[in-house]
Amino acid sequence: MLKIGTRGSHLATTQAGHVRDALIAGGAEAELRIVTTAGDLNMSPVERIGVGVFTTALRDALASGEVDVAVHSFKDLPTAGDARLHLVTPEREDNREALIARDGLTLTQLPQGAKVGTSAPRRVSQLRALRPDLDIRPLRGNIETRMSYVERGELDAIILAYAGLCRGGYAERATEVFDPATLMPAPAQGALAVECRADDAATRAALDALVSAEATACAAAERQVLATLEAGCTAPVAAYAELGERGALTLHAGVFAVDGSAQLVETLTGTDAAALGREAAEKLLERGAADIIK
Questions:
Q1: Which residues is 194 bridged to in the sheet?
Q2: Among 8, 275, 232, 271, residue whose Cα is nearest residue 142
Q3: Three-state DSSP state, 220
Q4: Are β-strands 115-117 and 157-161 bridged in parallel, bridged antiparallel, or unpaired?
Q5: Which of 55, 66, 90, 270 is least enclosed by beta carbons within 10 angstroms?
Q6: By CB neighbour count within 10 A (0-12 exposed, 13-18 middle, 19+ buried), where does 154 fall?
Q7: Active-site residue, selected from the candidate residues 76, 179, 272, 291
Q8: 45, 179, 175, 183: which is closest to 124 by C-alpha?
Q9: DSSP class of residue 103?
Q10: Taking Cα atoms as reference points, which of 146, 138, 123 lies closest to residue 234?
């Protein structure tokens, strides 16, 4: 029986459940095991406590043998690899950003000075460029908690990853789903990272059957942007890649000033995901990305 480690939130258990079901469909026996992390007990914003509190606990449980498989939102993982572990990327969910607003409003329909909740610098910076009049408020908690701020009228709208809404069964709650060219998503948004111990040959084989070549290539290009920029997942950095004909990837990468005053965007096409990500990041650095990130 493969023990699949996951955080206990509705979203985390739902996405881990998809992995469990895929493994069972492939002939394995699998069940979920909840791993409590320090981040689950600390309600401070991710930007303050660091997203690593979520991933480290799962990886430690995996390395110690408490669980056999760990499921992460890929965008939350550090860009440096972990030699103890074997990582695969299954089919990706929609990578776009979504708005949940009162009265079914879209971003352009929100009134002057509307209160919009998000704590991600990447989202804050792009929102300020699109709508400098907005009153952007910090936002924390799981998806249900975040949506409740709009339901109670404390916020006019919030921004969330559409993938989380889709996986959690809340897709219909989105009042607008943004074109990635309008509001660029986080690198690897919508992708899962599924890990096992590197020396566990049987589990490696089971996970390898779940691999999506397209999701793997796109996520690799996007995350290489972060790695080359030496930026964390909470930096104002965005990227998304699309797979075209004959295996060509088109990568869009951006760095944004948090006050909305500057936006640097590069678009490149190539077949080597890692090389494409490095080239895009290097071009951004040449244009002053390091100063914006700092």
A1: 71, 88
A2: 8
A3: helix
A4: parallel
A5: 66
A6: exposed
A7: 76
A8: 183
A9: G
A10: 123
Q: What is the pTM of this model?
A: 0.91
The single residue listed with the structure tokens 């890990």 is: 195
pLDDT tens, the chain, 294 aa long = 999 999 999 999 999 999 999 999 999 999 999 998 655 544 444 444 445 677 999 999 999 999 999 999 999 999 988 999 999 999 999 999 999 999 999 999 999 999 999 999 999 999 999 999 999 999 999 999 999 999 999 999 999 999 999 999 999 999 999 999 999 999 999 999 999 999 999 999 999 999 999 999 999 999 999 999 987 768 899 999 999 988 899 999 999 999 999 999 999 999 999 999 999 999 999 999 999 998
Structure tokens at 210: 């779940």
Is 135 among the catalytic positions?
no
**Burial zone of 48 (CB within 10 Å; 0-12 exposed, 13-18 middle, 19+ buried):** exposed
- Please give the Cα distance from 84 to 59 (Å, whole number): 9
Structure tokens at 91: 């089919």
How many residues does this entry show for the chain?
A: 294
